[in-house]
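Sat 14:20. Reprocessing the chain from the morning session after the first attempt stalled halfway. Input below, unchanged.
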Amino acid sequence: MKLHSTMCLDGVWRGRAGQAGELLVATGRVWLTRDGDLADHVLAAGDRLRLAAGDRITLEPWAPGRAPVLLWQAPDHLHGLRAVLGAGARLLAARLERAARRLQAWAGELSAA
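Finished this time. Tokens:
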């Protein structure tokens, strides 16, 4: 997971998840409601809740005067994607090199005949 932001929640906050990720409560407790979710969530320090891209949520400190600290984490998709693309490119390069050697050998056979 890649850390994207930290927030000290000192009042009601409403927003939307720009990408899929997890909300982690670092300290304190928070009350969370999510549009379309019939359940409210009370999260304590150490609790995580996965959010989908576009989820609209409302956050509020569970105890007045005690501002919880929240961390927003999103998967580092680019790192995984780069690794997959790099492996695919290396495989393709090896196959093209092998095909080029076969073509050179075939061309040599044709010119010798």
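The chain is about 30% helix and 40% strand.
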